[in-house]
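Model it.
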Amino acid sequence: MSARRNLQAVATLLLCGASLVAQIGGRATRPKVQRPDGAVWEVIRNNCTACHGIDDYAFYAQDRAAWSKLIANKHKAGEADISDADRSLLLDWLVSKFGPETKPFPRTYVPHEITTFFSDPEAKRLLDRACTKCHGLEQVQTARKAAEGWRVTLVDMRERGAQISDQDLEQLVEWLDRVWGTNEDK
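Modeled.
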């Protein structure tokens, strides 16, 4: 009996350890949203997946009005122009899967300590590589945010598909705060 209990205890510790390893680096495991079939998938494939995956939807638990507002606020004019019928189909699906009665996937991020800093050319290369696939740099250049505001924006962009490591993210936060910051947190 005691050997069996020891084995169960070891198995439990290994499972707990695996869960902790999945979150090393401060990032929770990404949600995995099951792709819808049929017409809803066609709407998403034709209008959404060029800039972000469907897993992003799991970070929200909203009613129809809030989903509609989020879609409008997260896209530049002309980006989310879909027919009323397609929009209705998409909103129906979003509310059925990620409505107010569901629990959103947690957004967690623990900033890493910066040991090196970006020069202007390094930062501009990263901005060109990570940001301009979905929007122009004028969107970044005209914004003024404190470091935490930049961090929230960059984590959100990474969750929408921007390819940026934790180290690059923190170096870019420091550079953006220095170059286009607000001095609010200094």
